[in-house]
Design brief:
alpha/beta, Rossmann fold, Arc Repressor Mutant, subunit A, 2 domains, 5-stranded parallel β-sheet, 7 helices, 39% helix, globular, phosphorelay response regulator activity, transcription cis-regulatory region binding, DNA-binding, transcription regulation, OmpR/PhoB-type_DNA-bd
Length: 219
């Protein structure tokens, strides 16, 4: 059982998510007023789901505040399918997004995939070139410099590094890293890759290459 926090000003949505995730054996804490979230012990939760359009404090602002306090996956639940909004949310540290209206099975699959990633027991580390991965702590270093990855950025980098030289499409990265395939999520892979490259480049490295018309590889 995992502890999940869901924040949405629509109580019907809160009840729906509660019913869906309760059936999967999870405990769900529902909050309809975003200003109450920061009063919670956020480290208690294994995963957080945030609506974007809420009165007072919107989901973007809330995500920014939360990400500095917790390391668990954050999923946006939103009626806003504009790519710019999605990119903004991922840039603030969210791991994924789900567009309303959503299907029961899709919600379960997204939540379960992220929780599986968190529960994996990893104790080893590895180096590839000048890049060092500490898998147990989900940390990446270049020399003594830690690359400031979000969880999703780290997971994508680790996946490509472990399969260095092999080319993966956006669909294969989505399936291999997150455990599900959804057309609307492919833009998130593109944005994550862009952010990963920018962070590596700041430290003088460019390990991820684009194979035009195919996908990406760790070179």
């Amino acid at each position: 059982m995992s502890n999940i926090l869901v924040v949405d000003d629509d109580k019907a949505i809160l009840d729906l998510i509660n019913n869906i995730l309760n059936k999967s054996g999870h405990y769900v804490k529902r909050i309809s007023r975003p200003d109450e979230v920061l009063q919670e012990n956020l480290n208690y939760y294994d995963l957080i789901i945030l609506d974007i359009m809420m009165p007072g404090i919107d989901g973007f602002e809330l995500c920014s505040d939360i990400r500095g306090k917790v390391d668990c996956p954050i999923l946006f639940l939103t009626a806003k399918s504009d790519e710019g909004d999605i990119i903004k949310g991922l840039g603030l540290g969210a791991d994924d997004y789900l567009i309303k209206p959503f299907g029961v099975q899709e919600l379960r699959a997204r939540v379960d995939a992220h929780l599986r990633r968190e529960q994996r027991k990893k104790v080893n580390s590895f180096n590839i070139g000048s890049v060092r991965f500490l898998i147990s702590g989900k940390e990446c270093f270049i020399g003594e410099n830690k690359v400031p990855f979000t969880k999703s950025e780290y997971e994508i980098s680790e996946f490509l590094a472990l399969h260095h030289g092999q080319v993966f499409s956006k669909e294969q990265i989505l399936e291999g890293v997150f455990g599900f395939e959804k057309e609307s999520s492919l833009s998130s892979i593109v944005e994550h890759i862009k952010n990963i490259r920018a962070k590596f480049l700041q430290l003088g490295e460019e390990p991820i290459k684009t194979v035009w018309g195919v996908g990406y590889k760790w070179d």
